[in-house]
Specification:
The complex is a heterodimer of chains A (about 500) and B (about 325).
Chain A lengths: L2 H10 L2 H19 L5 H14 L4 H26 L10 H10 L3 H34 L4 H15 L7 H15 L2 E2 L6 E2 L13 H21 L18 H6 L1 H16 L5 H16 L10 H17 L1 H7 L5 H12 L7 H5 L1 H30 L6 H20 L2 H19 L5 H24 L10 H31 L1
Helix pairs in contact in A: 1-17, 2-4, 2-17, 3-4, 3-15, 4-5, 4-6, 4-13, 4-15, 4-17, 5-6, 5-13, 6-11, 6-13, 6-14, 6-17, 7-20, 7-21, 8-20, 9-18, 9-19, 11-12, 11-13, 12-13, 18-19
Chain B lengths: L3 H22 L7 E4 L6 H15 L8 E4 L6 H9 L7 E6 H8 L12 E16 L7 H10 L5 E4 L6 H12 L8 E4 L2 H10 L5 E5 L4 H6 L2 E6 L25 E8 L5 H16 L1 H9 L7 E2 H21 L5
Classes of the chains: A mainly alpha (about 500), B alpha/beta (about 325).
Chain lengths: ~500, ~325
């Protein structure tokens, strides 16, 4: 039954393919670490190159898959070091990753997140190898109504992030939802909040949004501090570089749980690494944040989203390989690459082109080990980014942000938008808002609206469709429990206590 | 000093990133360029690369053609850019498709209409398809149409574009052919063909109006049934068994051409030179291979022929949009 995998390892372990896996992993890490270039751009840049070089299909795919998984590893670096997510999946990584760096634990944070990424990806790849066809059947059972219920569940699990200032969290999330409304309305084709500007028809791009909100506002904050007399309060000296075994064991359950969550979210077509990271983080905070340390540099709060986003990246291969349906934007581009080689992904691929299907899965295993080997020793080197003085760092981030956004759109409007969003982000931070709810509102709100509209156009406006299936009903109940239990449980328990007394 | 190593590393990272980025952004003088009015990886990217790789491999250009991306407004941003900024650039072509014609008809390209640019030619086409799940009750287009006439509200259509997009047009035209107003059609807009296909396989929608080229793997695995190809004539190869809508008595055609336009003030010589170049390319054997690898069927319309074709199409879409009350 696993003949294809044995054959796959044979293919993946040839010197050429091993080299390509290594190259892909290295480039992917770089693409992921640079804000503005994510896995999609990385693959789109390398795809024509691989084709022109005349690489055989399986080698090209091994290179591109290496870039994809590498980017998920790389995205965490700037999240941790600069508080700027390197790509979509790494937004939640900033929440505890950056505070750790501020405590002087940048090295261990990078090491821990490399190990979490490895654990997340490995569990997902094993899941992919063993259960792919079965999972694909379940994944298509998720229709618009089920996705809507899933988004309600995700919003409900966000309530845990309310923290000290629930009003500000709610306002932030609503702001994010409002940004998601800009553009052509998918249900009717009507333009919303575009002010007649064609540049806004497609809505506000994710990259523009994160770079503006995180990178530009971070630059503004740095500039503000640079002009103060206490300019050097900045970063503490770097402490130790390696993560300890004790710390890893401390996070083991966070990693395992989040890997599972990430894999499941990744398998569903239409939800990707960013949703996976958000659900994993909020779940972990709810389950294990007994002393309210999440958000202040808790190792588990770093391990959870990293394990999840890497697991989601591997999970999104399931619908692509088994059904020929891309599970994420990046796998859609990979699908395009396969078509160039006249290979049509789908169940037939495992029997007709086992060297491609097996080679790809085998290369995911190998690429992952390569990435861990690459990232652990380099953690110390990367951590030194923090010792770069501000007068080098600030212009550096600014250049990356501007070039990244410009290359995406070849258009100045995107730059202006990024700056406006950046200034708003800066003001929000000065007012004590957290940026994560804004981004989550933006990602989840858009998905939630689209799927609600889709579900209602299927049913012809009948709301009943939203809780008709077992899956959606289960998600609604889970969401209701999430919202009411924290309020209900103490009351029930104290009620019992008084009875006894 | 402590940060020596980092200082060496960081600029290197910057330089490498910068080179990669600059490569896709910076224009070289004397070189040719194709703008894909979308993000990398989509249909417009494919259209540009078809011209770029084809012209390169058949030695019709000596330097590689640069492909740059200008997403926004489903092509509107690039259209405005060419009409406003690079009106007379003789080395620039822009990818377009049936989707652009639909948006021009709907007035979504702002102040400019289809008469503004110089339509250059099309190098290939894909065709719409009416797809149902393999275990669906309908064996032919006629059976589906009959059921649709009796209970239009019970059969849910879905595809990868909004109401008014080219994906929706396929569903609307099909409904019209069955004498059903597109307004009564139950239509669900997904994000791209992949999501629509997933919804079809999961029984969330009953009919998917997709494109033939994206269906090849599903056809092989036997999970879906194509009731009709929306092509003028029956296609070859793996699609030879699929009847056209016209064969079954319904006049619905939906070719999705993949072509190019140039700025409004490009000189006649430059325009004609491009027309000749693309025409020569389309006749090469090597090009046929490249086209097929991208899942495209042959289509060769160039120069005035193509210009007239696009303008006719836009007028036809405009009429349909007015009928269903879509124009703004």
């Amino acid at each position: 039954m696993f003949d294809f995998l044995i054959q796959g390892f044979g293919v993946a372990l040839t010197p050429l393919n091993l080299g390509l896996a290594f190259l892909g992993a290295l480039l992917g890490t770089l693409f992921g670490a640079l804000p503005g270039i994510g896995p999609i751009n990385g693959i789109a840049i390398l795809m024509p190159l691989a084709y022109t070089l005349g690489l055989p299909a399986e080698s090209a795919l091994i290179l591109l898959a290496g870039v994809y998984t590498g980017a998920e590893y790389g995205g965490r670096m700037s999240s941790i070091l600069l508080n700027v997510p390197g790509d979509a999946g790494a937004v939640m990584t900033t929440l505890d990753g950056h505070p750790l760096a501020k405590k002087g634990l940048a090295g261990p944070a990078l090491g821990l997140s490399a190990v979490s990424s490895f654990v997340g990806a490995t569990i997902a790849i094993i899941g992919l190898t063993l259960f792919a066809p079965l999972l694909a059947e379940v994944a298509v059972m998720f229709g618009p109504a089920e996705f809507f219920a899933l988004m309600v569940f995700a919003f409900a699990s966000m309530s845990v992030m309310m923290g000290k200032d629930p009003i500000k969290t709610a306002i932030g999330a609503v702001l994010g939802v409002m940004v998601a409304m800009v553009g052509v309305d998918s249900g009717t084709g009507v333009l919303r909040y575009t002010f007649g500007m064609a540049e806004l028809y497609d809505g506000i791009d994710f990259v523009v949004m994160i770079i503006g909100l995180f990178a530009i506002s971070e630059i503004l904050l740095m500039l503000e501090h640079a002009n103060r007399s206490d300019a050097d309060e900045g970063m503490p000296p770097l402490g130790r570089v390696m993560v300890s075994v004790k710390e890893l064991l401390f996070c083991k359950w966070a990693m395992l749980r989040s890997a599972l969550i990430g894999f499941i979210v990744g398998v569903l077509p239409g939800t990707g690494a960013s949703v996976a990271g958000a659900v994993a983080y909020t779940t972990e905070k709810r389950l294990s944040d007994k002393d309210n340390t999440f958000g202040t540099g808790d190792m588990r709060g770093l391990a959870a989203p990293e394990a999840a986003n890497n697991a989601a990246a591997a999970g999104s291969f399931v619908p692509m390989l088994t059904l020929g349906i891309p599970g994420s934007g990046t796998t859609a581009v990979l699908l395009g690459a396969l078509m160039l080689y006249n290979i049509t992904p789908g169940p037939m691929m495992f029997t007709e082109r086992p060297e491609v299907a097996g080679g790809l899965i085998a290369s995911l295993y190998i690429g992952n080990i390569v990435l861990l080997a690459l990232n652990l020793p380099l953690a110390g080197v990367f951590a030194r980014v923090l010792t770069i003085p501000r007068w080098v760092l600030v212009p550096g981030i600014a250049i990356l942000a501007f070039v990244g956004v410009y290359q995406l759109h070849s258009d100045l409007t995107a730059i202006y938008l990024m700056l406006i969003i950046g200034i708003v982000g800066y003001l929000l931070r000065k007012l004590g808002f957290s940026l994560a709810p804004v981004i989550l509102g933006y990602v989840l709100g858009g998905l939630m609206e689209d799927n609600l509209r889709r579900a209602l156009s299927i049913s012809g406006g009948d709301l009943g469709i939203l809780w008709q299936s077992g899956i959606s009903l289960g998600l609604w109940i889970a969401a209701a429990l999430l919202l009411t239990l924290p309020w209900l449980l103490p009351r029930l328990l104290s009620g019992k206590a008084t009875d006894k007394a | 000093m402590r940060f020596n190593k980092a200082l060496c590393y960081w600029p290197a990272l910057l330089a490498l990133g910068g080179t990669l980025l600059a490569g896709t952004v910076q224009a070289q003088s004397g070189a040719t360029e194709c703008i894909a009015p979308a993000k990398p990886g989509g249909g417009y990217d494919l259209t540009c690369r078809l011209a770029a790789n084809g012209l390169q491999e058949t030695d019709l250009i000596d330097r590689p053609m640069m492909v740059s991306y200008m997403p926004g407004g489903i092509g509107a941003v690039a259209y405005n850019h060419v009409n406003g900024v690079r009106k007379d650039d003789p080395s620039l072509i822009v990818a377009a498709s049936t989707g652009a014609a639909v948006n021009l008809a709907l007035g979504k390209f702002g102040q400019y209409d289809a008469n503004e640019v110089r339509w250059l030619g099309a190098l290939g086409a894909d065709y719409g398809a009416i797809v149902v799940k393999a275990d669906a009750p309908w064996q032919s287009l006629e059976e589906l149409m009959t059921d649709l006439q009796t209970e239009p509200g019970e059969i849910v259509f879905g595809a990868g574009g909004t109401v008014g997009s080219q994906d929706w047009m396929k569903a609307a035209l099909t409904a019209k052919a069955a004498d059903i107003s597109p307004r009564d059609l139950r239509y669900v807009a997904f994000e791209g063909g992949g999501e629509s296909l997933a919804a079809l396989l999961g029984n969330h929608i009953q009919v998917f109006t997709g494109d033939l080229s994206e269906l090849s793997s599903q056809l092989e695995s036997g999970k879906v049934r194509v009731l009709a190809a929306l092509s003028e004539e029956r296609l070859e190869g793996p699609y030879a068994d699929i009847p056209t809508a016209a064969e079954q008595g319904y006049d619905v055609q939906w070719p999705i051409w993949r072509g190019y336009y140039m700025g409004p003030e490009v000189s006649d010589e430059a325009y004609q030179a491009w027309v000749d170049k693309l025409k020569t390319l389309s006749e090469k054997e090597k090009f046929a291979e490249l086209r097929e690898a991208r899942g495209l069927f042959p289509m060769a319309r160039f120069g005035d022929d193509f210009d007239g074709y696009v303008k006719d199409q836009v007028a036809q879409f405009k009429q349909l949009a007015e009928e269903v009350g879509l124009t703004q």
